[in-house]
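I'm stuck. Please check this protein.
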Amino acid sequence: MNTTTAQGTRANSATRVAFQGERGAFSEEAALRLLGEGIALVPRPTFESLFAAVGEGAADFALAPVENTLAGSVQRSYDLLLEGALHIVAEVIIPVRHCLVGCRGSSLDSIRTVESHPVALAQCERFFAAHARLRRVTADDTAGSVAEIVRRADPTRAAIAGRRAAEFYGGVILREGVEDDRENYTRFVLLAPVPEVREGADKLSLVMTLPDGLGALCAALAPFARRRVDLLKIESRPVKAEPWSYHIFLDLRASLLEADTAEALAELRERAASVRVLGCYPSARANEAEGLARLKD
């Protein structure tokens, strides 16, 4: 199966996409949803190794989570995006549906501990409140937790993860839909070593720093406001070694292919201390989370 990537190349078995976590993770699901089944998946154990994968030659693209509708922004991704030189060329949004997964022979009555990534555990508070006897154990990864409980074959242990992880490792789904809120989505961005603005790109991500002074942020946003450019998100992260100074990340409904956007950026560069475009790419709508965000020619 071949799928066109954000850079116009064919995504097939030769196209390597790195993601954080073990096989079966939600990140793997996002990569396949965005680029199709015909890609080579490159699991990476940490965010640091994920963002280093392209530069090391281990992958052609990296797929990083940046935001969850319940847990908020993935701050480590923002920090590493800032520290590195990768460019956003696409995004995808997937629904996060948590399952309670055990080994063969286990049941809801037999389990005593449940392990998973701390964010996944926190998204299942109602389940744990209803089963107060269960002890939570934090782990590095949802899919990795399933791999571990299947390997140990201990009917007293279970994990919280997605259906894909349960199927991949041969776990038994003991309960589906254990998340507190069905409106649980995670947004991922596809990162490439060189920028690419394709026809249809309608989302612009950038990061800036501002000079000291009253109303600096208002002045920086004014060029976009005057042109009625929609501000989708604003996020700040501390500037290292400069207390109380911040990098300000913006997501805008805009395209570098439009004259208004180019003019607004030119004005912004005059008002900001620094501006870096992180990417201009096709957006993924929340209602495309069931599979409509696949990149197309």
